[in-house]
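Technical note accompanying the year-one report. For the benefit of new consortium partners, we illustrate the data format agreed upon in the data management plan: each record pairs a sequence with a structure-token string. No post-processing was applied to the example shown here.
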Amino acid sequence: MSTYPTTATHGGQAVDAAPKKPGTLVVAWAIAILTGLAAVACGLVILTGGVDLAKEVAAKALAEETGMTVDQVKAEGGELLLAAGAEEIKDQLAGRAYILMVPGVLALLFALMMGKAATWSRVLVTIFATLTLPGACLIAFRDYEATTLMLATAWIAVLAALITIVLTWLGPNNRYARAVKQQRA
């Protein structure tokens, strides 16, 4: 089925019918929203659980250096964990959360504006979906002990961003955008 406007008659006069929105655009729109939501969710999980995760990572690092068990390190108390760099780890995690959340929020915002397949909105969705990838990959490829929820949301963000980038620029979406633009003119 063509997405170009068709001519219909109404009262004996030719009238351009509205172009039909292609399914690829609807899917691209939904996946773009998922990209933004997953990135924001992952960032929020990191920010809310970052202190505990930082202490856990610091305890493991200190246990390896001292030959103690993780439980022994935890029993020694917070001073030992702070000495092992828990505060620095917490700051790194917060930085990663913001690196993921800012483009995620913007991808979500511009995805919501992508309904008419305007080129400007698709360009911005592509840019911000691409910018979510480094932050999501940092978490997804676990250079520290991430929680299952962090990993799940990070992988969803990575995969959804890649799918968004591809789906946004498929031919039916381009034809629909041109048809909508022609109809307005």
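Partners are asked to follow this layout when depositing records. Residues 22-55+97-171 form one domain.
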